């Protein structure tokens, strides 16, 4: 057997096993796993390194419309470059519909932004903001058929929030088409009520972002989304869960036999509401929704990961620059937390944070790390086994990790478009040193070697989790 590349001497880990083995790559795929694979034009010495499936970050926002005067800090080039340095080989951003727009046109426009501009592979989720008959009856089913097999809906945000009636209609389409539905669960009316009340009391600083959407706001919406999904009997992913009460809603649903899944993110393990208490709106750097909570919620999210209630660990990378007229403080003269664009960067730091805080500190195993950061994303969103594992026949999407490297996270080390990292100063042990997509290095020993445009768009199968129970 002939190979283009052999990765030699490393320790391979998948979601189920860890073993010493060489990896033979031919035509962009893994062609053999074993020892004594012979020789190849390229031999990669991985001794002392972990050989892991490249990270799949299934929740990132790139070049998304974000409101008047506000521009996201990452385009596809900078986001996928940053992701590659963070050990990722694929990201799944959102093609976001706005009211009145054709979903098909939104997807076409988003392809124009992405095509030829990616360092690693990408695939799009949809965002449904306009649940019209045409969208639900024609466009969405056709797009699911074409490989856009997942979509997100929002229970909050001006212009995005769906009513319960709309949620039920959308869920019906998800059930009929086999699409995986992702839900942003926060109670819109409660947030508006609390925001008005805080502002009337002069509580406009960024710290109050947390008080405007406290845990019951998320818990209630999570419970309601699950109840609606139960009525329709449709599987659902509750994204960016921030606390134990929302987590317990998911756990209870699962105990009742429902196919309800959960995702959490680094901000809910590493940040708290107090991080939003910065002088001169500096807390805007941490404003995201749901907001970071408290130490107890952090622990609850760890337990959610350990107990499998959360099957996905994603970044919810949603980057805005801080010191920039189009960034976090863009809405001129509007000094309330209400106007701060929601979202924080994290695609480059997701994996080192979970590796260090999770694997190295003994909270999760290396195999659980692989499942939470790669394999489960591929399984959930119709990419498995092409992506998300190391096995003969799969795409050679691989990250080489130095499990002992100590790094202090700092903006100076980042490769994206933002001007800050919310994780500045956090010390981690374990770092992805090289990233390879379909057998070609994108990052090699900490240097960018990949070509812009080498990342492909990947149409997806239907989720293996999105099969409804028998009627
Ligand atoms: O604050 C956040 N999470 N912004 C990104 C959009 C979303 O809701 O995921
Ligand atoms: Zn969301
Ligand atoms: Zn998001």
């Amino acid at each position: 057997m002939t190979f283009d590349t052999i990765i030699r001497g490393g320790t391979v880990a998948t979601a189920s096993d860890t073993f010493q083995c060489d990896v033979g790559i031919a035509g962009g795929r893994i062609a053999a796993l074993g020892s004594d694979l012979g020789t190849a034009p390229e031999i990669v010495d991985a001794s002392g390194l972990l050989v892991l499936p490249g990270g799949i970050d299934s929740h990132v926002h790139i070049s998304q419309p974000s409101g008047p005067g506000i521009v996201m800090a990452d385009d596809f080039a900078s986001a996928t470059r940053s992701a590659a340095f963070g050990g990722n080989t694929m990201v799944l951003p959102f093609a976001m519909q706005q009211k009145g727009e054709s979903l098909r046109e939104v997807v076409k426009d988003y392809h124009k932004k992405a095509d030829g501009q990616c360092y690693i592979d990408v695939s799009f989720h949809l965002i449904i903001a306009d649940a019209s008959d045409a969208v639900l009856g024609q466009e969405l089913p056709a797009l699911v058929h074409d490989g856009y097999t997942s979509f997100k809906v929002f229970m909050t945000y001006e212009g995005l929030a769906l009513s319960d009636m709309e949620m039920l209609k959308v869920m019906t389409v998800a059930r009929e088409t086999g699409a995986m539905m992702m839900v942003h669960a926060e109670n819109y009316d409660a947030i508006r009520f609390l925001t008005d009340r805080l502002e009337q009391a002069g509580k406009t600083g960024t710290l109050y972002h947390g008080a405007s959407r406290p845990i019951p706001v998320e818990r209630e919406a999570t419970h309601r989304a699950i109840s609606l999904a139960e009525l329709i009997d449709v599987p659902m992913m509750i994204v960016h869960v921030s606390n134990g009460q929302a987590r317990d809603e998911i756990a209870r649903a699962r105990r009742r036999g429902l196919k309800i899944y959960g995702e959490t993110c680094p901000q809910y393990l590493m940040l708290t509401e107090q991080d939003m208490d910065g002088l001169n709106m500096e807390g805007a750097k941490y404003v995201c929704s749901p907001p970071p909570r408290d130490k107890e919620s952090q622990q609850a999210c760890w337990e959610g990961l350990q107990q499998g209630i959360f099957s996905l660990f994603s970044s919810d990378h949603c980057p805005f620059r801080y010191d920039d007229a189009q960034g976090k403080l863009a809405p001129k003269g509007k000094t309330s937390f209400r106007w701060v664009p929601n979202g924080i960067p994290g695609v480059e730091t997701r994996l080192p944070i979970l590796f260090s805080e999770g694997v190295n500190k003994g909270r999760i195993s290396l195999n659980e790390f692989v499942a939470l950061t790669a394999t489960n994303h591929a399984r959930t969103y119709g990419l498995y086994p092409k992506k998300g594992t190391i096995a003969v026949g799969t795409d050679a999407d691989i990250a080489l990790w130095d499990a002992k490297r100590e790094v202090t996270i700092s903006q100076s080390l980042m490769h994206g478009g933002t001007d800050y990292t919310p994780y500045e100063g956090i010390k981690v042990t374990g770092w992805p040193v090289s990233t390879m997509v379909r057998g070609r290095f994108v990052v090699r020993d900490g240097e960018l070697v990949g070509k812009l445009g080498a990342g492909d768009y990947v149409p997806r199968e239907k989720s293996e989790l999105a099969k409804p129970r028998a009627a």
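The first strand starts at residue 5 and ends at 8. The CA atoms of residues 17 and 303 lie 22 Å apart.
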